[in-house]
Write a structure and sequence with these properties.
heterodimer, A: mainly alpha, 10 helices, B: 117 residues, mainly alpha, 9 helices
């Protein structure tokens, strides 16, 4: 048994090609496959399913809220994530919105209003939007699980006669 | 059932599957009516994409207004698309924004068509 496997390993033509004999594109494709493999396994399958079910938008807004809740708004930031600032613009109507939301999440309403007037409305609008995205994703999952179409894409109940005709 | 590709050739992927599910139990007349109304009411994903690109010129959030998300639209408009971040998110996500709106419209139209004749 051992000799057979040894034979296969040493004698099969594919195995005999060492890395040194490979041409450039073969090495490249091997590297590319390795990278893809690593990326594929870096995120667990259930996590990937969850991400694609919730959607990018909800993930981004949730991530932003979590970051702003953890981030300390009282320290002056030494680097900025803002793409406009990084492009060299010095003014943007949304400047300070992140800090304002962060102040609000830390319970400092006065500083939040002082930093940006739209901090509180933005928090309300974004959280409503995020919650509705989660609600729709959850309802879609439920109706998939039941495999009966009782709800539409947005998780609202379908009229009863529509079900009866199917 | 009429051929969905003849009636609505612009449908693709997720939207195609969704509309197919809706018109499954419609007769010829209802399907024709549905296709006509739905064609005129749906938003083309490409329109969403082009309108999102306006965000780089300073007019952000039009994609949210035309898909009935007025609150998000106003927020985007007043903050230059959340400092460009929201615009970039929507640029990546434009198909989903379009489908979310279109699925709602398709549902509404199908319900009306089924009750009308």
């Amino acid at each position: 048994m051992e000799s057979v496997t040894k034979n296969i390993r040493s004698d099969s033509p594919e195995r005999n090609i060492g890395l040194t004999e490979m041409s450039g594109w073969q090495k490249d494709s091997l590297n590319c496959m390795a990278v893809r493999e690593v990326l594929h396994h870096a995120v667990p399958e259930r996590m990937r399913e969850l991400f694609s079910a919730i959607g990018l938008e909800a993930v981004v807004w949730t991530g932003a809220f979590v970051y702003l809740a953890i981030h300390n708004p009282y320290t002056q930031a030494e680097f900025t994530l803002c793409p406009l600032r990084n492009l060299g613009f010095h003014y943007c109507p949304g400047c300070g919105l992140g800090r304002s939301i962060s102040f609000l999440l830390h319970g400092d309403i006065i500083r939040s209003v002082q930093t940006h007037l739209l901090g509180i409305p933005a928090t309300i609008i974004l959280s409503i939007r995020t919650l509705s995205l989660y609600r729709a994703a959850f309802a879609r999952k439920q109706s998939n699980k039941l495999s009966i179409k009782t709800r539409n894409y947005h998780g609202e109940h379908l009229p009863v006669n529509a079900d009866a005709s199917r | 059932m009429a051929n969905i590709f003849q009636l609505m050739p612009m449908l693709q992927g997720e939207e195609l599957a969704y509309v197919q599910g809706l018109i499954k139990d419609m007769n010829e007349n209802q399907t024709q009516l549905f296709a006509g109304v739905y064609n005129s009411r749906r938003r083309d994903p490409q329109t969403i994409l082009l309108v999102t690109l306006l965000g780089f010129l300073g007019v952000a959030g039009v994609q949210r207004f035309i898909t009935d998300q007025i609150g998000m639209g106003i927020l985007y408009f007043l903050t230059a698309g959340l400092c460009l971040i929201g615009t970039i998110v929507d640029l990546v996500n434009y198909k989903r924004i379009a489908f979310e709106y279109n699925a709602n419209i398709a549902q509404e139209v199908a319900r009306t068509v089924k009750t009308s004749n």
